[in-house]
Amino acid sequence: MIRLIKRFVTFLLLFLVSLFAFYLVGNYQGFMDSTLENILFTLKVVAIALVIFSFFGIISVILGAIRFKKPSHLMLLILYGISLLLSIFVIAYSFLITIRF
To answer: Residue 71: phi, psi to the nearest 5?
Structure first.
């Protein structure tokens, strides 16, 4: 179960970073407003999914450390924490940009 969540969080994190870079490049090059709104909507959906799966990943790592009595997945905990903070930042940023449109 931990491997499945780890792979899904990694995929969503890379997808989120690539979409955010695509939004920044599109904003610089003058994409149409409707295209930028579609990218922002996709960013919100991916970021919300990443928050959910990062939270479940943190819970599963903590429960695994308690159950097996050894903190062997410390790097996973750090990855989930960073992805959770990054996705919360992207959600806040996309809502602020949407309000400004």
So the answer is: -85, 70
Among all chains, which residue has been given the structure tokens 């579609």?
Answer: 38
CA angle centred on 9, ends 4 and 11, rounded to 5°: 95
pLDDT digits (tens, 9 = 90+) for 66-81: 887 766 778 888 889 9
**Are the C-beta atoms of 58 and 77 separated by less than 8 Å?**
yes
Q: Are 34 and 42 in contact (CB under 8 A)?
A: no
Cβ atoms within 10 Å of 75's Cβ, excluding its own: 10
Tell me, what DSSP letter sits at residue 64? H
Among 77, 32, 25, residue whose Cα is nearest residue 54: 77
The DSSP symbol for 69 reads: T
- Tell how far CA 44 is from the center of its chain: 9
Say what the pTM is.
0.85
Which amino acid, 47?
A
